[in-house]
Task: structure prediction
Amino acid sequence: MSGQEKVRLRPPRNQLNRRAIGWWRVQILLLFAPLVVTLAILGILIPPARFWMLLPGAVLAVIGALCVLLIPLWLYRVHRWECTETAVYTRTGFFWQEWRVAPMSRIQTVDTLRGPLQQWFKLATVTVTTASARGAVKIEGLDHELAAQLAEQLTETTQATPGDAT
Result:
């Protein structure tokens, strides 16, 4: 490569904050619980339909419990991120892995988001927007203080990086 080192893509080193597991669990619970509770109440209040309400409610409760226990652990295991002097990159997925790389010279905006559940778990999401048609690079499940530091660092690095960010 005529005097230049070849850049090799390697797995990002950083895991998300461990509290992200609880955050994902609550999100899944909020998805399943209303359905299970509704079916249980209808099953109790409508005796002729009891079996047809309680059976799907029980099935959903079992599926929901398995999802609450297993999916967050799996998500925690497969999500990685890293910020270097030249780029921000993430990797998600197990069977279908997605790598997202945002070169510093292409970054247009850096945003942080803390929804109500994230605030409860002291987490945040950092969104790095580029001119890519694929959309922004998101790092969800970061400690809120680390997210603020990362946003500040990316802003400073982006300002100091030559390029037009388009």
Remarks:
- The mean pLDDT is 90.
- The two ends are 27 Å apart (CA to CA).
- The chain has four helices and seven strands.
- Residues 50-78 form the longest helix (29 residues).
